[in-house]
Amino acid sequence: MLMIWSALPAFSQADSARRARTVAPRPQTHKVTVDSLHVADSLRRVADSLAAAALPKVNPYDTVLQRLAKTNRYLQTEGKTPEYDINPLRADPGQDWLVYLVGGVLLLLGVIRTAYLKYFSDLFRAFFNPTLSQRQLKDQLSQSPFPNFLLNFFFAISMGLYLYLLMYRLNYPTNAIAWMLIPGLMLLVGIIYLVKFVVLRFCGWLFGNEELIDAYVFILYLINKVLGIMLAPFLVILAFCTPEIAGTSLYISIFFIVLLVVYRYVRSYSLIRQYLSFSKLHFFLYLCAFEVVPVLIITKVLLLWLTGNP
User: Fold this and answer.
1) Rounded to the nearest 10 degrees, what angle do helices 243-272 and 210-240 cross at?
2) Across 2-16, 109-123, 288-302, which has the greatest mean pLDDT?
3) Whole-angstrom Cα distance, residue 239 to residue 102?
4) In Å, how far are 193, 213, 227, 228, 254 from 155, measured between CA atoms?
5) What SS3 state is found at 31?
6) CA 146 to chain centroid
7) Rounded-to-integer distance, Cα 289 and Cα 216, Å
8) DSSP assignment, residue 26?
9) Structure confidence by residue, pLDDT tens digits, 166-212
10) Pick from 255, 260, 76, 227: which is nearest to 155 by CA?
11) Residue 31: pLDDT above 50?
12) How much is the average pLDDT of 230-255?
């Protein structure tokens, strides 16, 4: 009994050691292997996602165009030398003020036409129908003094700006004195026709032919109003187009001006023949003395003032 009692602690220690060996965890070799596989698979998926994001997306529209460029003979570029359409840099002449000036002239014309639309209609009816204008439309236009004055004022502005652009396109030195030359030309045109109006009225009172002078003044200022309106598109072309287009439009505008002047004298001659008897030679002398010579003198004075050459 003593021997058995003394051997019990040894048995209990051996049993505790055996239980400890049984409870101790086994090496997790399989778990580490599975986790490694999961990490590798996640890394591969991330790499595939990054590679897919780096690739450019193909648009179906681009695919269709590429196929069309390969199959259509008009769109094929293989073997052809590319041609580059590059516009040359336009030099800035420093004339931004001209944009506002021409825009203001067109705006003035638009306001006058919008406010007095019936007057515009009667004006062009009188211009294209000489017989009707002398009988009916003359009185209608004479009863509208304010739009009549506005269109005469617009004619002076349009003609003055046209003369400046004419000298500008003919390479006269106008840049340094443009701020003074343009108002001066507008004022000059206004003064010329104002003096002409006063002289004609005085001659009609002096010789007792006020009705004839009244009809002639009506024709004169009717043609001037139409001329001022006709010059509006040429102002835009002369101001902003290339020298080639501006040169062509310059000759076209001069042709229309000469045509209107001739038309004015044809209508004036047929009108005056109804009141007076005179020869064609006297009428021609009148044109040379009171119409052509003053214009030539004014042109010569302007050229001397601008260029300084006799």
Assistant:
1) 170
2) 109-123
3) 8
4) 10, 21, 7, 4, 16
5) helix
6) 31
7) 17
8) P
9) 888 887 766 657 778 888 889 988 888 888 888 888 888 887 778 87
10) 227
11) no
12) 90
| Residue pair 141/119 in contact by the 8 Å Cβ criterion | yes
Residue 239 makes CB contacts below 8 A (sequence gap 6+) with 98, 99, 102, 165
Instruction: Provide the whole-model pTM.
Output: 0.64
pLDDT digits (tens, 9 = 90+) for 103-154: 999 999 999 999 988 888 888 888 887 765 556 666 666 677 888 889 999 9
Q: Which of 197, 109, 103, 194 is nearest to 151 (CA)?
A: 109
- Top pLDDT among 133 and 290 is at 290
CB atoms within 10 A of CB 57: 7
| Contacts of 192-200 spanning 24+ positions with Cβ under 8 A | 192/294, 192/298, 193/152, 193/155, 193/156, 193/221, 193/224, 196/220, 197/221
AA identity, residue 138: K
End-to-end CA distance of the chain: 159
H/E stretch holding 298: helix 293-307
Distance CA 267, CA 130 (A): 8
Instruction: Give the CA distances from residue 286 to residues 73, 259, 280, 281, in Å, rounded to whole numbers and listed in that order.
Output: 71, 19, 10, 9
| DSSP state letters, 4-20 | HHHHHHHHHHHHHHHHH
Q: Rounded distance, CA 227 to CA 229, Å? A: 5
Residue 242 φ then ψ, to 5°: -65, 160
- Across 69-78, 231-240, 256-265, least confident range: 69-78
User: Which phi and psi (to 5°) does residue 276 adopt?
Assistant: -130, 155
For residue 34, the one-letter residue type is V
